[in-house]
């Protein structure tokens, strides 16, 4: 039986995340210093047309997120070649693209994992998710999906960031079971 890692709680330290970027650099969550948040967008991989559309929509709002102090990274369990192909084919430049997330890292973030249904899919990959991490390294909010069809509304999130930031709105969902 698979063990499910506990879901990280808002208001608590975010799980570690250290990855390689397709540009040959290293990226570590602990090294980030955004004005407001680091937004980690977990996508399924190159095989996912819904990811292509979602990340394309994000690319169209990328500058708006940056203007509100939100640094963005797209992350998957894909290898470098698949991640680079997605970045290029989906027109995601200049959003940083991390690759090679491990199963252990995905589980630490509370991501759901799936196995391949056909030859186009990797053997194991994470389902989509999105997390906002505060500059102090605490998790502010997270949404993880068990299916490719459920995604956060990026326009709604963007439209509420000013309120969240200006009012210093506290993280919700902080009560442990």
TrEMBL record:
Coiled-coil parts of chain: none
InterPro entries: AhpC/TSA (IPR000866), Thioredoxin-like_sf (IPR036249), Thioredoxin_domain (IPR013766)
Molecular function as annotated in GO: antioxidant activity; oxidoreductase activity
Domain Thioredoxin: 8-166
Name under which the protein is recorded: Peroxiredoxin
Organism field: Jannaschia faecimaris
